[in-house]
Design a protein that fits this description.
The structure holds 2 protein chains of 2 kinds. Chain A is mostly helical. Chain A has a domain at about 45-90. Helices cover about 65% and strands about 0% of the residues of chain A. Chain A contains 5 helices and no strands. The longest helix of chain A is centred in the C-terminal third of the chain and has 20 residues, at about 60-80. In chain B, about 70% of the residues lie in helices and about 0% in strands. Chain B has helices at about 5-20, 25-45, 50-70, 70-110, 125-145, 150-160, 175-180, 190-220, 230-260, 280-285, 285-300, 305-325, 330-350, 355-380, 385-390, 405-415, 425-430, 435-455. Classes of the chains: A mainly alpha, B mainly alpha.
């Protein structure tokens, strides 16, 4: 029982280092807007990844509908030239 | 559900929206976070949600009993019982078949061979981590580092909180539970830093770790006898970078995700390969585990008291630290080697300051190669494989078959990143916040697509999931 009766030292009460300590704060509204814009950009530029993801879903009527929508979306982005962004990086 | 997947992105978007929408209703917010965490865990195997709940509820109950116990003797007895229960569950799920197998081997060697029966025990993901969280809660409460017990809801969330549930960082009860007692502040979210951590983590995992694993480390470690010294050396350097990028990526993303939800996690890595000694290495590598072992095992064993006792305590701590990683003799040997190297360093260097300039550079190089040597045992499936790997380091007659410019660049970049300025994250954050907010957001979305496209097909699980 020596283990349990050994007096505690200051280590456990010392706060650990944190990677977000001293970081700049952002209000929730700004964070939500940032996440929304980032998601839209990712959906626009990452139509290939969306297509790959829907193609890998377990087969069901819902996933079939999703796959069809993702194909349409990818064709649309292809037409606009936006999918070339991801394809060029992939070739690299 | 792995972090670098669209599944997780969608899951997180829902949890983020829902929990911030509930910011005025603190208890309900905690309940939703808990439910989301169980859903996240259930994606691996829903049956283990019951184990997770039992572990949390059991530790909560023991915590209340310890707190309410009228005298020290009873508190100590309750703590001993609770620790035995926690470690017993961990031992059963993680080590039962390892001990049976080792016992069978021993009995066979002694000529009294008996086939002790194995059990079909599935290893619950993250059991090592949530067991350590439970022990942290009980010991912090016993020591008085935690001033009062958690409510059941707080306890369920502390143990199951999804960013840290399956691979850490190990969050101390005394550090995290006070955060759950008060409502989060929606006016002060460390979002830019969080996005940088998440992007950096995704890059390290998807691009660096996955490419090094598939192109260099896995093929060479799979059959070391088919490769010469150059490839073996590149593979062990590659593994050093891969495991760092893989594990630190997970914890960086976990820290970023938690920060976006309003919570703070401890730092887990601090450029470990720039360490000029093994002691310094362990202050920079998997900090939440090494400090946990220091505070809950090494110090209570007596810590640095006296010469041979320090040696004994170090060896016990490192051996158990090795065994914590996995039920295999390779991990035990990995811990043993680290223990021996630490003991040797204590004897050779003592309390002397690490040299500066070229002396420090040499110490960094020696430390890195010692760590690399131990990684051979950590990565190899068994001891015979590790010995075969090390023997191959003397085969200089074969040219490299796996080196490509891209893999060498990733390897060099992964090592060079350890020598970037310590305040690199703050500097990047300062630069980013000067951009218009919409540009920051668009760059975030574009960066996610770039990282996804730069990685190989598919997503390999994080290395530390198996622990």
């Amino acid at each position: 029982m020596t283990y349990l009766s050994h007096p505690s030292r200051s280590f456990t009460s010392r706060p650990p280092a944190e990677m977000v300590r001293g970081a700049r704060g952002m209000p929730l509204g700004e964070v939500a807007r940032t996440v929304a814009v980032a998601a839209v950009v990712a959906v626009l530029l990452g139509s290939r990844a969306l297509l790959d993801w829907t193609a890998a879903l377990p087969v069901s009527p819902a996933s079939d509908a999703l796959l069809s929508a993702a194909e349409t979306w990818h064709d649309l982005m292809d037409g606009l030239g936006l999918s070339r962004f991801g394809d060029t990086i992939r070739k690299f | 559900m792995l972090f670098p997947t669209l599944n997780f992105a969608l899951f997180f978007l829902v949890v983020f929206s829902l929990t911030w929408a509930l910011r005025g209703r603190h208890t309900l917010r905690l309940a939703v976070l808990t439910a989301a965490s169980y859903l996240f865990y259930g994606f691996w195997d829903w049956r283990f949600c019951a184990l997770l709940f039992a572990s949390s509820a059991g530790n909560w109950l023991f915590g209340r009993l310890i707190f309410a116990a009228p005298d020290q003797a009873r508190r100590r007895l309750l703590l001993a019982g609770a620790l035995a229960l926690n470690l017993g569950v961990l031992a059963f799920f993680k080590y039962f078949n390892f001990f049976i197998g080792s016992m069978n081997d021993l009995l066979l060697t002694l000529g009294i061979g008996r086939d002790l029966p194995f059990l079909a025990v599935l290893l619950p993901v993250g059991i090592s981590f949530f067991t350590f969280h439970g022990i942290s809660y009980l010991v912090d409460l016993y020591r008085g580092t935690l001033d009062r017990p958690a409510t059941l809801l707080q306890m369920l969330l502390y143990i199951s909180f999804f960013p840290q549930l399956v691979a850490g960082p190990i969050v101390r009860a005394a550090h995290f539970l006070p955060q759950l007692r008060q409502p989060v502040d929606p006016a002060d979210i460390a979002a830019t830093r969080a996005f940088l951590l998440i992007l950096g983590g995704l890059f390290k995992k998807v691009v660096v770790a996955n490419q090094l694993a598939t192109g260099l480390v896995d093929p060479v470690f799979h059959d070391p006898s088919a490769h010469g010294a150059v490839d073996l050396l590149l593979a062990v350097y590659g593994y050093a970078v891969q495991i760092y990028c893989d594990f630190s990526a997970y914890t960086d993303i976990a820290i970023g995700v938690a920060a976006l939800l309003g919570y703070r996690f401890p730092q887990n890595f601090d450029q470990p390969y720039r360490a000029a000694g093994l002691r310094e290495f362990w202050r920079r590598w998997h900090i939440s585990l090494s400090s946990w072992l220091r505070d809950y095992l090494y110090i209570p064993l007596g810590g640095n008291d006296g010469g041979w006792r320090r040696t004994r305590n170090l060896m016990i701590t490192m051996l158990l630290g090795g065994l914590w990683h996995g039920a295999a003799w390779t991990f035990v040997l990995w811990g043993l080697l680290h223990g021996l190297l630490l003991v040797a360093e204590h004897h050779l260097v003592g309390r002397r300051e690490t040299a500066a300039g070229w002396g420090r550079a040499a110490a960094v190089a020696v430390t890195f190669h010692c760590v690399c040597l131990t990684w051979v045992f950590f990565r190899s499936p068994d001891l015979a494989h590790a010995v075969e790997f090390l023997a191959g380091l003397a085969r200089f007659d074969r040219p490299s078959e796996v080196a490509t410019p891209m893999l060498l660049a990733l390897l060099a970049g992964g090592l060079a990143a350890h020598f970037l300025p310590r305040d690199r994250l703050e500097r990047i954050e300062d630069w980013v916040v000067r951009l218009p907010r919409t540009a920051q957001a668009a760059a975030l979305g574009a960066a996610i697509v770039v990282i996804d496209r730069l990685g190989p097909d598919g997503v390999a699980p994080f290395i530390y999931f198996q622990f």
